[in-house]
């Protein structure tokens, strides 16, 4: 006979708030729990999570592609579908260009499968942790992927969602301006890192952006870290963040993973502080994002019942209409050799306030002198 | 120039016209153009008023000394005709041993002086028409405490304040009274003030308090005149003040005269007990900590060599002990320490030199505890030191010079993540004050203050400075205030304060703050009607999220990031002594306040704009406070009942409109009705002393969620969303719902036992005797079937034990 408990897959630290919230969470254990009472059904509110991402050509050829998605769902209820089917979702640019997002058969098109960690406790107190993948489908997904974007970086876009029962949700966003990597050498969107070496990505500021989100999906870690007795998943998704238009530098992979730090990833992220291990490779996205996304992600005042989001979708519902401009890079950690892409390249290092050009990759320890 | 005048009519409109007239005639606030005119006005008040206010002197005044040359503070002076001892008048000696009686008809009188530790002094005094009588009295030391002397001292203090003060609303609590109030774990001087009228709290878990619709950061908390920025342990649960070191706590809830600046809502003065110079020890153990306080004096030889008549000192230490106690079994991750000291030296001429200091730390270290995934380390604390010199003047005045330094710092970090949140604020102050009593009916006081403030807050995570703000500022202030008794029926006070604030970053601002108060005595000076008003300013704010009932203050200065706070206030009321031997005192006071320049965090701040982290707003509050107190008899105590309405208006960042429209709402501390009953009585069973506190308060506002929804994060590499393991809320009207009313009964029992070696006092304190589940906050679970509301209550039934020893 085994008892089962579920736990969060990834605890997300929120500085002092996390600790204080922990204290508050411990109050029920002190006899401070209130009697549970039944309350009225929640209001049925439509939530629109919409985004338009313009992807700039990695080789600076000037082409721009676009992917747009809108996940429509409803406030949580004990029963009933949370899908919002049959809606018209369209994005209109300042130029008058209109893109309609098509409804998909399943929400899985918009969503990464959920992973849940389940801890099984056996009678002899031994435990076993299982990872379960759940395909979530209780939402409606609308997408549009265009190889040539009808919109340009810096353009103001409007979102309109009209549901079959006549509810209308609207939002607007100015897409951030274009930006370019500096000192990064790519071939077909790829470059090479020396093993166990951090690399500092630099880029030009994007006009109007509020933050840069750096995402990476790192592959091959399981095998690459096995020699160090570190258990790692084959694929690990880590995020980094640079805040403000002028914060145009991030160290990969050292500065990634702040929001992904958990019991199951702690050792791996620590290992990545010294760089990518040989044999692993990563897809890295750097996106300049708009105010709407930043506001939605960081939240507002404390509320004990859940996170408070600052919306950018209004009308007969709430939600976010976010826009971003991104560049994608693939990096492989390997010694130089035949068939390898070029070193990620020259980069700018600032030492005592002076720019120093460096032809080779830079070990992160050198950068500490900044 | 930015200040807003209130928007209400009626009485306020009249006050506003007066204020505007004064301001326009004297100077325009915020403008350098007005400066010379303002200085002229201050000088005018300082120099010309006393002579203009000269009046008849029918006065007996005196100064009281101890045998060893110490000025005796707080002695009860009682005066009555030789022929009729029932027609007594009472007052107390001030901080320089000075007392006086005015409007004394010619005749023969008996004057008595009494104070704990001294033998009662009694002498006959003859008063002749138009002659000012001055006496110098020396009290003989007497170790045995006289029955009722302390009560007498408290009553004389209250009576003197009633007769002497026109405007300020002030209540004080002595250490004995504090100890009689049932306390959370141990006696807490700051928690004690929450039972006073006009004071409300939002959480049992925080000793932070709100006064008359002001936010918690608008209370100036002074330890021996040195500001303490964050006087709390354990996220606000306990104050840093060790009750054994405290003589009294005094709360000025409004109408404070021009000498007070820096905060707009209240001034809480915690006065150290410097002891009597005899070596003694007070110690105690509670469920929180162990503490000890020792006092004494310098050896006579040292005093003589230094040319001093008398010295006294008292030091205390306090430390929580669970980490030490549990060490053999586990690493308890928290401890606190406090060290406090005060030293006082008196010269033979009556000059007083005083040094007061405090340092305290809280340490939480979770890095070595169990399987904690995050190595949290958090340390915070205050350091404060103040030095003052007081020179008594003939006729009862004094000159004070003070220098002080205070700082608060906190460092919260996750070692594993390289994430760190640091905050520091500090203030250095130099001030000089001169008080004179040129005639029997006039008193004036002027002074100048220079403050240097500095703050630095930063959040660093993953190599990125997520947030940072820092700045400093100079405040130069000058004030002058007068006190005038034109006759036995009226008392008039007025004053002007000038604050010049020069922040970096930010532009300089000058605030002119007129203050006035009028009191009309009735019923043979046992009752009075009074009116007071004024402008108050404040140049720093706390950015703590007030929605969250725990936490520490994080300070910022007015300047480029935040506005100054300007508060215009008007209050009027009646107060009276009544009953046999004036055993009862009651006051009823109504007030109206505006707050311009209050702040809240801007949840939609633009990271590209370093000056938009905070939103500027305004607010108002009005209310009525009733206070009924009994000082004599077996059962003493008081009833404090407060009615309050307050509102704040800020730009609504959640509206989606640009610019943000204004949103008005009651702040989280808008408790409409708050009633406290505090009683103290010897129980007659085994020598027990009983204390009781009953509280009722209407519910506080909160923002009710209308629904919750899943939240997602973006995976840009994959162009998809990822479920983010949590839910967000769709919120209803801001603070549009209210928690149920709260009520609670606390009791305490103390059993003083005299022993050969001293006194042992075990005590039992029971918080929330009938285990009322007052709401701290609700959780709404809309995913449950059916949807439910659960939550967390305030402190449940909580008995605590402890004991104190004195020898």
Structural commentary:
The complex is a heterodimer of chains A (370) and B (807). Helices cover 10% and strands 41% of the residues of chain A. Chain A has helices spanning 15-26, 221-226, 266-272, 291-298, 364-367; strands spanning 3-7, 37-38, 46-56, 64-74, 88-93, 98-103, 114-121, 127-134, 140-146, 156-162, 168-174, 181-182, 190-193, 199-203, 211-219, 235-243, 249-252, 281-289, 307-308, 313-315, 317-333, 347-351, 354-358. In chain A, strands 3, 4, 5, 6, 9, 10, 11, 13, 15, 16, 18, 20 and 21 form a 13-stranded mixed sheet that branches. A three-stranded antiparallel sheet of chain A has the order 1-7-8, with no helix packed on it. In chain A, a hairpin with a 7-residue loop joins strand 3 (46-56) and strand 4. In chain B, the strands form ten sheets. Chain B has a 22-stranded antiparallel beta barrel. At the A-B interface, helix 1, strand 2, strand 3, strand 4 and strand 15 of A face strand 26, strand 40, strand 41, strand 46 and strand 47 of B.
Distance between the termini of chain B: 59 Å
| Helicity range of chain B | under 10%
| Average pLDDT reading of chain B | 85
Distance between the termini of chain A: 58 Å
Rg of chain B over CA atoms, rounded to whole Å, is: 27 Å
Q: What average pLDDT do the residues of chain A reach?
A: 82
Number of β-strand runs of chain B: 48
Q: Low-confidence parts of chain B lasting 5 or more residues at pLDDT below 50?
A: 1-39, 41-56
Q: Treating each run of at least 4 consecutive H or I residues as one helix, how many helices of chain B? A: 7
Radius of gyration of chain A using CA atoms only? 23 Å
- The count of helical stretches of chain A stands at 5
What layout of secondary structure does this protein have?
The complex is a heterodimer of chains A (370) and B (807).
Chain A lengths: L2 E5 L7 H12 L10 E2 L7 E11 L7 E11 L13 E6 L4 E6 L10 E8 L5 E8 L5 E7 L9 E7 L5 E7 L6 E2 L7 E4 L5 E5 L7 E9 L1 H6 L8 E9 L5 E4 L13 H7 L8 E9 L1 H8 L8 E2 L4 E3 L1 E17 L13 E5 L2 E5 L5 H4 L3
Parallel strand pairs in A: 3-21, 13-21
Antiparallel strand pairs in A: 1-7, 3-4, 4-9, 5-6, 5-10, 6-9, 7-8, 10-11, 11-20, 12-14, 14-17, 15-16, 15-18, 18-21, 22-23
Chain B lengths: L10 H16 L8 H18 L6 E8 L9 E6 L7 E4 L5 E5 L4 E8 L6 E7 L5 E7 L9 H16 L4 E6 H6 L8 H4 L6 E2 L9 E2 L7 E5 L2 E2 L4 E2 L4 E2 L6 E9 L11 E7 L7 E6 L3 E8 L3 H6 L2 E13 L1 H4 L8 E14 L4 E14 L10 E17 L5 E17 L4 E21 L2 E20 L2 E21 L5 E15 L4 E14 L4 E12 L1 E3 L12 E3 L7 E14 L5 E18 L12 E17 L5 E16 L10 E4 L7 E10 L6 E9 L3 E2 L2 E11 L4 E12 L5 E2 L3 E9 L2 E3 L2 E10 L7 E7 L6 E6 L4 E9 L1
